[in-house]
Every structure is written in C-alpha cells, then in structure tokens.
Inverse folding.
C-alpha cells in the first residue's frame, strides 16, 4: 500500500488547512506534496474527498516504544486500576484462562493511585497462583513485580547483593518483597522467553493499526533492536508498514555494533537509523529518577544513576564519533545536569543530541539546552498523570522544576512531544490538550497545574509536527504542509482551538494519510 506509482497523481479535495483559508486542494505524486491549490479544477489520476476535514501535517510521536505498545495490547492491562485488589482481580481472570507453567505478563500498575500507597509483594501474587511465573511492570516501565515462582526460575536468593544502578526491595527482615527496580529488573525479565520474529511483526502490526487510527504517521522508537529493524525492513519491502520509524538503537552491542563502521542509514524514507538510546536514571514514581537533593518523601534517597560518569562519557563519545545522535533517558534534575555536562564535554553538538523526558530541570540548567544544541523530548501526558503526587516526591520548593516546557521553549529550543507509549496512551490530541492546559480530562486543577509552563496551542501542535520532525533531522521533509514534503496528513473533523480545550478530546480523526495513501478512514 505504501509506494505511490510515480506516474500517477492524487488530488485531495474538500478540505481546510488551518491558517491557509485560500487552499482548497492538495496534489501529490510519488508520496510527496506537489502543489497546494486554491481550487480543485485540475485533472489527476485519483481524486480523494476529505469530507470537509481539517488537514494537519501528519502527527509524529517523538518518543514511544513500538513493539512494547503492541505487546501491551496483548498482555494484561493494569493501567487505570485504583486499588491493589482491582489489579489482582484482573490477574486472577487471566490466570484462570492460562495453562499452568506459562508466563503471565502485564503492565500498568501504579501504587501511587492506590488508597494505601505501598508497593505490592510476591505474596499477593502467590495467593493467585504458584504454578505460573508472573511478572508485571509498573506503569513507568522502571519497576517489575514478580511472584515467587518467577523469582525461583531466575535463581534469585534472599542473600543476593544489590545491583549497581538498581534496587531489590526487601522487607524489614531482609527478605525479597518481589519488586525489582531499574537495573535489577533484568534479573527477572532476562528469564522470560524471547519473542519470535512472528511475535514481533504481530506486535508492530497491532501497534501501527492503533497509531494510524489516532492520526499518527511517524514515530521515534525509543529503543530498537537489530531484529526489529530487520523485521521493519521486510515490512517495508512488502508494503506492510504504515508509519515512518525513526529508530533509536539499543545501547547493546548486539544491536549497534554493525553500524559503528558503516554509520547511520538515511536513504529509506520509512526507516532512519541515526540515533542511540541510553538510560541514565530511572523514573520519578518509583524514586529511581536521580535528584540533586533528596526526595522529600524519602530523605535518605536521591534516586539512581545507572552509569558512572566515566562509563557514560565513553558511551557518548563512542556514538557521537560514529555520527549517531545520542538520546539519553534523563528524568531527575541530577540526571539532566549530568547529561548536559557530558554532552558539553564530549558530544558533537551538530548531532542535536537529546534528553528523553527531561521532567525535572534545575533552573540553572534551563539555558544550557540552547547553548549546547540539546533537544528535550518531553511528553505532556506524563505531567498530567504525575501531577497528583509529584509534590510528595519534590516538595513545594522544587515544583517549579517539574515539566518546564514553556521555560525551555522561551529560550528558543524546540520541544518535541510524544506519549512514551505504552506508558501513556498514544493519542496526540490528548497530548495537545495536556500541553495547553496541564489539566486532567475532568478539567482539574481549575487553572492548570504549574500553569506558567503551559504551551500555546501553536506550540503544542508544533511539538507533534514541526518540532518532532526537527528532532529526527527531517524538518525539510515532514512536519509541515509544503511542496516537496512527504504527503503525510492527519485529517480532523474540526479545527483545533484553545477556546474550549476539552473539545480537543472529542475531536475525531477522519483520515490518516501516509505517503499519499489512506491508511485509516473513520467510517
């Protein structure tokens, strides 16, 4: 479905473009925009009526996990559960349908949403089954909860030493509770059978169907394996890929070593191999984010740096010397500062190196993004998911550091948006709404949480279009409706407006168009 016949033209008609009232039609050829027209009085091989829809540049999710999203859609969904009992009930229902011995997996629990804010335990799961190994990832992906059988299979004993860059939670007597944080997660997760090639392709197909339905035409995949790249390339050859993918290679020699000599791959318009994903700290919800000052609700704890300064410098130097953009996961203000310091010391500044998330930024570091040509890839719905409890982690005196979108934008730095799916639901309209309101879907809090950091509507749309394209070096081919740009469009039933932000959440995607072809139509 993907490649337009280079000898044919397609004319999109009956449309509106925000800010361009004189444009009535778009002519495309070979997957590109040829002309923006003031009328549709032109002959084309194919004419497509867009039903009076509002055409935006194709939405780009600048940070998500493609196969992880597909996997999550097949696993036990614990997102939105409000009590531990509700979580256990969902698990019980899945276990009752699963043969003994098979792994039970899921994701999405968040102890911060429960009436009693405590981590769950292996005993909670053991009451459901001792015949199924079970693992469930926390909503942020930085903690794993396992039952005793999974721990036994992983050969983890009570006297195991702590893991560098990770935490093994224990009770007062020193026994394992069943929760493993950051680097310690791999003790369990490495024992789960690897997905097959068929599994991975199915995950991708499942995920891209949802993404197209939500109006997404491109993604930045925050951690892509060599196997996944091979599968994506096969899908492109078979014209089965309906999104463009900007990959971030895993910081794993098996995935990146073959590219160290050959360098980035930029020729295929559906897959770019030009970046590497590195993890430096954990997440705020599990207190793994590295903070300059201790957590307000854990005075002896500052979070986790997963790499030493020397190790991290060597990693950045290696990839930057090979011509790869370095995209480092950094959530806490200490992690953000460490990344900036390292980029300043050893990185090639022309590579638009990124900090993924950049949720907590010290005021002294705001101006450094511009100075060092560093891009903060920030996800608006993280803010509106976390705002209920962030004050507990940071205290009132540090709240101004949290999710400082507008402060960074005012320095002249683009802030690409995204969802971090499956951590958050990958709906760009929900992201745009969160960006301009800093409110949840009920309109709370009334004036927005830390409202001074809200984006304007224009900025929020740019975060999913122009700025996201810039973050992948594709600002001359996507992110705007211009001649010679990709014919990637998101067509909505209404023009987005900040007059009534809640209306954004009720806006419908009429069409998603990639490479000049309809990949989703709202029937």
């Amino acid at each position: 479905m993907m490649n337009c016949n280079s000898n044919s033209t397609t004319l999109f008609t009956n449309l509106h473009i925000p800010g361009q009232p004189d444009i009535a039609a778009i002519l495309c050829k070979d997957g590109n925009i040829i002309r923006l027209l003031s009328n549709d009085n032109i002959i084309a091989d194919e004419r497509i009526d867009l039903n009076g829809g509002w055409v935006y540049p194709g939405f780009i999710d600048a940070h998500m996990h493609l196969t992880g999203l597909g996997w999550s859609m097949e696993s036990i969904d614990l997102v939105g559960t409000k009590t531990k009992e509700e979580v256990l009930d969902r698990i019980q229902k899945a276990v009752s349908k699963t043969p003994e011995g098979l792994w039970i997996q899921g994701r999405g629990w968040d102890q911060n949403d429960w009436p009693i804010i405590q981590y769950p335990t292996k005993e909670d799961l053991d009451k459901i089954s001792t015949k199924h190994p079970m693992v469930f990832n926390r909503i942020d992906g930085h903690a794993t909860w396992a039952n005793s059988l999974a721990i036994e299979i992983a050969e983890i004993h009570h006297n195991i030493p702590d893991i560098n860059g990770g935490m093994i939670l224990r009770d007062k007597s020193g026994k394992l509770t069943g929760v493993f944080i950051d680097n310690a997660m791999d003790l369990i997760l490495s024992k789960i059978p690897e997905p097959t090639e068929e599994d991975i392709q199915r995950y991708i197909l499942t995920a891209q169907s949802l993404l197209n339905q939500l109006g997404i035409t491109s993604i930045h995949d925050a951690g892509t394996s060599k196997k996944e790249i091979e599968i994506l390339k096969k899908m492109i050859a078979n014209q089965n890929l309906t999104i463009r993918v900007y990959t971030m290679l895993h910081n794993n020699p098996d995935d990146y070593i073959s590219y160290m000599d050959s360098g980035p791959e930029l020729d295929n318009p559906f897959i770019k191999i030009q970046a590497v994903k590195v993890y430096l700290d954990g997440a705020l919800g599990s207190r793994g984010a590295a903070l300059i000052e201790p957590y307000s609700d854990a005075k002896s704890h500052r979070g986790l740096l997963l790499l030493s300064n020397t190790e991290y410098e060597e990693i950045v130097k290696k990839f930057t010397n090979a011509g790869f953009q370095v995209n480092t996961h950094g959530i806490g203000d200490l992690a953000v500062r460490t990344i900036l310091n390292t980029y300043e010391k050893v990185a090639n500044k022309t590579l638009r190196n990124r900090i993924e998330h950049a949720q907590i930024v010290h005021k002294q570091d705001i101006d450094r993004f511009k100075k060092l040509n560093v891009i903060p890839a920030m996800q608006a719905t993280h803010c509106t998911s976390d705002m209920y409890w962030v004050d507990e982690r940071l205290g009132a005196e540090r709240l101004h550091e949290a999710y400082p979108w507008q402060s960074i934008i005012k320095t002249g730095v683009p802030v690409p948006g995204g969802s971090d799916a499956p951590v958050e639901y990958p709906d760009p309209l929900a992201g745009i709404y969160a960006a301009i309101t800093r409110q949840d879907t009920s309109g709370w809090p009334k004036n927005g949480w830390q409202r001074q950091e809200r984006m304007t509507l224009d900025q929020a749309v740019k975060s999913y279009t122009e700025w996201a394209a810039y973050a992948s070096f594709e600002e001359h081919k996507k992110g705007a409706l211009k001649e010679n740009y990709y014919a990637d469009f998101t067509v909505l039933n209404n023009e987005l407006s900040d007059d009534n932000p809640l209306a954004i959440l009720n806006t419908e995607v009429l069409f998603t168009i990639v490479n000049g072809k309809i990949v989703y139509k709202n029937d």
